[in-house]
Design a protein that fits this description.
Keywords: Isomerase, Metal-binding, Zinc. This protein is of the alpha+beta class. Helix content is 15%, strand content 38%. It has two domains: 212 residues, Sandwich (Jelly Rolls), CATH 2.60.120; 83 residues, Sandwich (Jelly Rolls). The chain is globular and about 60 Å long.
């Protein structure tokens, strides 16, 4: 059958630190409080995205890839990942500070968990006054000093703290210590992996007086202890052009800010294309001439077979993240 642009039912996660912005941002009624995450495109076991409309409605993402193979993801991705979709796309709304954590790389992930590691990036959709996040180190420390700082409750003193505003973006390669701060609403693009080592949780206790499990020793070998000149992605806003935010071995992500129709030829990329609408609305037409309306909070997967020429027609203006593997 002819493939078409795919939207999926959001997988909403009710989490104790979740806020009230995700349903509002996506236009979901009733507007639920305490939703910390919306998994937009996922093939993580137990959280596999399901098509929400069209002839393929009700099919999940792994079933689609099993049936249509490289027509969904591209030849390279199908050869490498099989029926596992290579990326996980999320919205995250933090009402409270999230725990400080790190993710292993592919080598460590395979050794310990038979899983790929997790490299990811964040794009700040909105931020309350005073919102911040942690990414990387501000002061040098050794693995043994790291363990000691956890014991002495001084680990946060070593972290690079970043005040954030709408439009800020951060690349988080596997091994980089990080945490999202209260009042931060982000889009996250990451490898398909659900492995997280929790390093520090501000000594918080649950109703029974118990702290959350920490993975101090597991994280010790996963952390990249180097200091870097910058942890924030630097880019310039350019209307009606594709602006690259990040390109790594796992994904490339571009920012599109459009107020007039633009066409993009992705046929040479051998990949699906995902569009995540940050603001405004538009119509997206794929190479089969199938059109889909997109608005703020919508995530659309264009199958690899349909990326030859994609035309985006803004309805006024639109801001999109464009990502592919």
């Amino acid at each position: 059958m002819n493939l078409y642009p795919l939207k999926f039912d959001p997988i909403l996660k009710s989490i104790i630190w979740g806020g009230a912005d995700i349903c509002k941002f996506k236009g979901i009624e009733p507007q639920l409080d305490g939703i910390g995450e919306s998994w937009e495109v996922s093939s993580v076991e137990g959280n596999i995205s399901v098509v929400d409309s069209g002839a393929l409605k009700g099919k999940n993402l792994q079933e689609l890839i099993a049936e249509y193979k490289d027509r969904i993801v591209g030849k390279h991705n199908f050869e490498k990942f099989g029926t596992t979709f290579p990326l996980l796309i999320k919205f995250i709304d933090a009402r409270d500070n999230l725990s400080i954590q790190v993710h292993p790389d592919d080598v460590l992930g395979m050794q310990r968990h038979n899983s790929f590691g997790k490299t990811e990036m964040w794009y700040v959709i909105n931020a309350a006054p005073g919102a911040f996040l942690y990414s990387g180190f501000a002061k040098q420390l050794t693995p043994d000093e790291y363990v000691k700082s956890i014991e002495e409750n001084t680990f946060v003193d070593y972290l690079a703290k970043h005040d954030v505003k709408k439009g800020d973006s951060f690349f988080l390669p596997a091994g980089r210590v990080h945490a999202i701060g209260a009042g931060t609403f982000i889009a996250e693009i990451q490898q398909t992996s659900n492995i997280t080592y929790r390093i520090y949780d501000y000594n918080r206790k649950d109703a029974n007086g118990n702290g959350r499990e920490l993975h101090t020793e597991l994280a010790k070998d996963a952390i990249d202890y180097k200091l870097y000149d910058s942890y924030k992605l630097n880019y310039s806003h350019k209307e009606n052009e594709s602006v690259q935010l990040e390109s790594c071995q796992y994904f490339t992500t571009n920012l599109l800010e459009l107020d007039k129709p633009q066409s993009f030829d992705h046929s040479a990329k051998d990949s699906f294309i995902i569009y995540i609408c940050m603001d405004g609305a538009c119509e997206i037409e794929d190479s089969s001439k199938t059109k889909i309306d997109v608005k703020q909070g919508t995530t659309v997967l264009i199958p690899a077979a349909n990326t030859g020429n994609i035309t985006i027609t803004p309805k006024g203006s639109v801001q999109l993240l464009e990502t592919f593997a």
